[in-house]
Amino acid sequence: MAIAKAERLMNLALCLLGSGRPLSKRELRTSIEAYIEVTSDDAFNRMFERDKDDLRELGMVIETVESVDGDIGYVARRDRNQLPPLTLDAEEAAALVLVARVWQQARLAGAASGAVQKLRAAGMPLAEEEREAYSALEPRVPAGEAAFEPLMIACRDRRPVTFGYRKSNAARPENRQVEPWALECWRGHWYLAGFDRDRGAVRVFRLSRIVGRVKSRLGMFTAEVPGQVAVRESVARWAGEHATGQARIRLRAGSGYPLRARATGAIARDADWDELEIPYGHGLGAWLAEFGPDVVVLEPAELRADVLDRLRAVAKG
Length: 317
Description:
Strand order of the largest sheet: 6-5-4-3-7
Distance between the termini: 47 Å
Number of helices: 12
Largest sheet: 5 strands, antiparallel
């Protein structure tokens, strides 16, 4: 049914955009197959009004025009239903391409790639030689867990779910009933933040520990959904982001802004490098390795060794 409605809306939009003149209800009814199949005038009128309102809610500008004879027609003028010209510079365009390349194993991969191709066709200023300057490190956000796609859809549609979940110290999984809020990738792992109905509290679940199928359930959320910042903080606390000490690093000037935001102290050593002190806790080594040649770990020694081991592993492929 959802596919049929989407097709009907698309056909109506194409008719209104392609006519070049106002079309009456009668003309639209005889031009669109889904309307032809409706035998009742009242049913058609209700369907058409809903479809017209849906298109307007999606952002389409549909004008109602009355002729000299008093007939009512509808038209969507192309000049009022076009995106403004793209004004992206090379760095902004490169950022969009970088984001699109992140999704390699998820349902969004095809959509992200298609969006970039459309932007290029519309004049996005990113030639091959310009893109090379931004591709020394290629990001990856793996989303190979079977639970990723159904949970992504459940978060989008605000639908409760149930799934089996095995804790790190448990031999068997147990069933959980969750109102899913958001998916977050933290240090290379995906987590679901949401409201656990059985425990009546906020919980965070690592997707790699979900066992079996994720099942969607009918009904509304019973708990208020917090803002994105609060969700990220919940994931960070659950994932062990508690500092046990301080680390000292060198960071290339003009880079690593997420690290700068966490720094407790910063000194400009020269024109190329800054020295930062940042909280040292679980997962910091993996995070620093993501910045590649822009970061040099000074201390502690075990953190420096951890980052070097990770970079060597990447270099070996």
